[in-house]
Amino acid sequence: MEIEKMFIVKISWDTNEDRLREYFKSFGEVIEAIIMKDRATSRARLFGFVVFADPSATERVVLKKHVIEKFASEQP
């Protein structure tokens, strides 16, 4: 089984990992959704990763701009 990890930037302070997973599951099976945190403060660093079970899901994701929690996310 191939998997595909996407780097997601500009994540809102209000978005948590469950919300990130919920949003991106419409593009395919999400294996993991991670929002990176500062080690010292445990605050979100406003970027993260979404791992899909099917690499073709990433192709569907990059075809449009995404707004999660009123904040535009981008894929570099």
Q: Can you describe this structure?
A:
- This protein has helices spanning 17-24, 56-61, and strands at residues 4-9, 30-37, 44-52, 66-68, 71-73.
- Helices cover 18% and strands 38% of the residues.
- The strands form 2 sheets. Strands 1-3-2 form a 3-stranded antiparallel β-sheet.
- It has one domain (4-73): RRM (RNA recognition motif) domain (Alpha-Beta Plaits).
- It contains 2 helices and 5 strands; from the N terminus they run βαββαββ.
- By secondary structure, the protein is an alpha+beta fold.
- It is globular, with a radius of gyration of 12 Å.
- Residues 4-76 form the RRM domain.
- It holds the Pfam family RRM_1.
- It comes from Punica granatum.
- One of its GO terms (molecular function) is mRNA binding.
- This is RRM domain-containing protein.
Biggest sheet, open or closed, and with what strands and sense?
3 strands, antiparallel
Low-pLDDT stretches: none
Coarse shape? globular
The N- and C-terminal alpha carbons lie at a distance of 25 Å
Organism: Punica granatum (Pomegranate)
InterPro entries: Nucleotide-bd_a/b_plait_sf, RBD_domain_sf, RRM_dom
GO molecular function: mRNA binding
Pfam family, one: RRM_1
Name the features.
Alpha-Beta Plaits, single chain, 3-stranded antiparallel sheet, 5 strands, 76 residues, alpha+beta
